[in-house]
């Protein structure tokens, strides 16, 4: 597709359930980012991949959060034992090259609600 | 530490009037600055960026932004607002020394343009 695609668009999880969120970046984009956007807030960085290598995971809030990009294209963000505070919109973004001032292109996000 | 401040939660403008959405930043190195717009239930859309050179940057949909190094500001402007410009606007900064492209976002400013 032409843009970044995320699925599902909406996810309701019971507290304690594991969830997996998928991101299909723009074809050929080397860099992939995950951000978390709480209601009424700006996006906050979670993690960054350059191809299949996870180079920065400093924003992951706990060890319940795990991300992978095994073949350097599609990425999955997994949240184990979900908590209510995990409720947010999870945004995926990709950019063509890892260096220089290239802009990132964002997907529509996955809205996660933990009940 | 890098940070972005958007001092106004909401900006109200009459259609046809000029608009300004304010942004100030803090970064240790040279900044790359970005503006994104978010429509309801949509992902972030790139508007414009400042890398270096001319302090006035022109972007999509008639928007422009002025970089002011001494005031560490990057205000978004448009000479004549449209009702369709109503949306949530985010300013973001990246340190040019930061490999990978992680963005630090402001809290967002809700722009409301009334007919």
Provide key terms for this protein:
heterodimer, A: 115 residues, mainly beta, four-stranded antiparallel beta sheet, 11 strands, B: 115 residues, six-stranded mixed beta sheet, 0% helix
How would you describe this structure to a colleague?
The complex is a heterodimer of chains A (115) and B (115). Chain A has no helices and eleven strands. With 115 residues, chain A is mainly β. Chain A is globular. Helix content of chain A is 0%, strand content 48%. The termini of chain B are far apart. In chain B, the strands form three sheets. In chain B, strands 2, 5, 6, 10, 11 and 12 form a six-stranded mixed β-sheet that branches. In chain B, strands 3-9-8-7 form a four-stranded antiparallel β-sheet, with no helix packed on it. Chain B is mostly beta strands and 115 residues long. Chain B contains no helices and twelve strands. Chain B is globular and about 45 Å long. Chain B is 0% helix and 52% strand. Classes of the chains: A mainly beta (115), B mainly beta (115). The interface between A and B is medium-sized, with 28 and 26 residues.
């Amino acid at each position: 597709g032409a843009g970044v695609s995320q699925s599902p668009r909406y996810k309701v999880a019971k507290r304690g359930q594991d969830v997996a969120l998928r991101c299909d970046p723009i074809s050929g984009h080397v860099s992939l980012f995950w951000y978390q956007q709480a209601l009424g807030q700006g996006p906050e960085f979670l993690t960054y991949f350059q191809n299949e290598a996870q180079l920065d995971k400093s924003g992951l809030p706990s060890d319940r959060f795990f991300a992978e990009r095994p073949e350097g294209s599609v990425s999955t963000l997994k949240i184990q034992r979900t908590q209510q505070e995990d409720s947010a919109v999870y945004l995926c973004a990709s950019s063509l090259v890892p260096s220089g001032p290239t802009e990132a292109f964002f997907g529509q996000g996955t809205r996660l609600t933990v009940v | 530490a890098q940070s972005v401040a958007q001092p106004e939660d909401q900006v109200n403008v009459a259609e046809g009037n000029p608009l300004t959405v304010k942004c100030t930043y803090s970064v240790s190195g040279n900044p790359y600055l970005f503006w994104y717009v978010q429509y309801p239930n949509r992902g972030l859309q790139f508007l414009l960026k400042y890398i270096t050179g001319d302090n006035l940057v022109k972007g999509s949909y008639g928007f422009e932004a002025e970089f002011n190094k001494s005031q560490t500001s990057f205000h978004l402007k448009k000479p004549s607002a449209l009702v369709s410009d109503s949306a949530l606007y985010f300013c973001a900064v990246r340190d040019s020394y930061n490999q990978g492209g992680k963005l630090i976002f402001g809290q967002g400013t809700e722009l409301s343009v009334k007919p």
